[in-house]
Amino acid sequence: MKKFLKTIIPIAIGLFLVWYSYNATTEEDRAQIITNISNASPFWVLLSIGIGILSHISRAVRWNFMLNPLGYRPKLSNNIFIILMAYFANLGIPRSGEFLRATALTTYEGVPFEKGFGTIVTERVIDLIMLLLVIALALFLQTDIILDFLSEKGVSLLGSAVILGIGIVGLITFVFLIRRSNSGFGLKLKNFLNGMLDGVSSILKMKKKWHFIFHTFFIWGCYIAMFWVIKYTVAATIDLSFSQLLVAFIAGAFAMSTTNGGIGAYPIAVTAALSLFAVPEVSGKAFGWIMWISQTLMVVLFGAISFILLPLLNRNR
Questions:
Q1: What is the distance between the alpha carbons of residues 113 and 103, in angstroms, rounded to a whole number?
Q2: What is the pLDDT of residues 10-26, one digit of tens each?
Q3: pTM of the entire structure?
Q4: Do residues 270 and 295 make contact, with C-beta atoms less than 8 angstroms apart?
Q5: Which of 44, 185, 186, 190 has the fewest Cβ atoms surrounding its Cβ within 10 A?
Q6: Burial 53-75 (b: 16+ CB within 10 A, else e)
Q7: Model confidence at 249, in pLDDT bands (50, 70, 90)?
Q8: Residues 79 and 215: beta-carbon distance below 8 Å
Q9: Angle at 257 between CA 297 and CA 149, to 5 degrees
C-alpha cells in the first residue's frame, strides 16, 4: 500500500495541476490561444520549445555541480524530471516548485531537505544576479527607452534600491537572532538554516566551477534565444534588433513573478514593451501570447509526463 500510494499520489497531483491550469484561463483566453497557435509558424514555435528544453537539461546538469560537493550524486534523469515537475507545480501554486524539488530530491535521492533546498536557494540567487546583468546590458543598449518606461509605470530605481536594502538588513537581523536563540523552535530553525547554508556554500566547494559558470550563461542564453526566435512568428516583430527584444524579454521576466507562470500578465508586459518600438498592439499581443503559450504548453506537457515517470522509474526508492 505504501509503494502504491507513493506512485499514485504524484500522478494524481499531476492530473490535478493539468485540470487547474486549464480552468485558470477564461473562454476568451482559450479562444485567443487557439487563434495565435493556428497563425504561428510551427517551425519557430518548436525551435523555441526545443531551446527551452535544453535550458532545463542544462539546469539539471548544473544542479549536480552543487550537490556533488555535499556528497550526493543524483541521477541526471531524476534531476530533469524533478525540475520539470517543479516548473509545472509553480503554474498551480507560486513558489511551490522549490519545495517540491527539495522534497522529491529527498524522496528519490536521499538528499536531506535543507541541503537540497539550500542549493535551490543558491540557484535563485544566481538567477537574480543573471537577470540583473541582463537588465544592465539592456539599460546600456536602450538607456532612454527603459528609463522612460519605468517612469511611466511609476517605478523608482532609488525607491526599489531602498526597499531591497531594508529587506537585506531585516534578513541579516533575523538570522543573527535565530543563531543566538536557545529555544526548541530556535534550535530546530538553526539546524535548518545550517543545512541551507551548506547547500548555498556548495558553490564554493565545487571542483568544476568553470563548468558551473558555463551552464549558468548557457541557461540564460537559452532563455533569450527562445524569446528571440519567436519574433519570426509575427511579421511586425521580424525586424526588431537584439537590444529591442531584450527590453521585451526583461518586461516578460518581471511579469512571470506577478502571476502563476505569468498567466495574463506576461502578454500584457511584452506588448507594452514592444509598443515602445512602434510594434502595433495586436502584433505585440500575438508575440506575447505565442511565447507564453509555447513555453507553458512545454511545461504542462513535460511536467505532467515527469509527474508520472519519476515515481514509476523509481519504484524501489
A1: 6
A2: 556 655 655 654 665 56
A3: 0.75
A4: no
A5: 185
A6: ebbbbbbbbbbbbbbbbbebebe
A7: very high
A8: no
A9: 110
Helix axes 96-109, 76-92, angle to 10 degrees: 150
Measured from the Cβ of residue 224, the count of other Cβ atoms closer than 10 Å reads 15
Grid coordinates given for 5: 500510494
Structural contact between residues 10 and 311, judged by C-beta atoms closer than 8 angstroms: yes
Residue 259 has a CB neighbour count (10 Å cut-off) of 14
Residues 297, 87 contacting (CB under 8 angstroms): no
The contacts of residue 317 (CB under 8 Å, 6+ apart) are 107, 108, 109
Among the residues of the chain, which ranges form H helices? 2-23, 27-39, 42-67, 76-92, 96-109, 113-141, 143-152, 157-180, 184-205, 209-228, 242-255, 265-275, 281-313
Find the length of the chain. 317
Nearest of 67, 123, 64 to residue 97 by alpha carbon: 123
Checking if the pLDDT of 7 tops 70, the result is no
Copy the grid coordinates of residue 222: 537559452
Sign of CA dihedral 200, 205, 208, 213: positive
For 90-133, what is each residue's pLDDT tens digit?
877 767 788 889 999 998 988 888 888 888 888 888 888 888 88
Q: At 168, list the grid cell.
A: 537585506
Amino acid of residue 135: I
Site of grid cell 521580424? 238
Q: Taking the CB of residue 106, how many other CB atoms lie within 10 A of it?
A: 16
216 pLDDT exceeds 90?
yes
Alpha-carbon distance 194 to 53, whole Å? 33
Q: Which of 82, 36, 38, 37 is nearest to 57 (CA)?
A: 82
- 240 residue type, one letter: L
Q: What are phi and psi of 125, to 5 degrees?
A: -65, -45
C-alpha cell read off for 188: 530546530
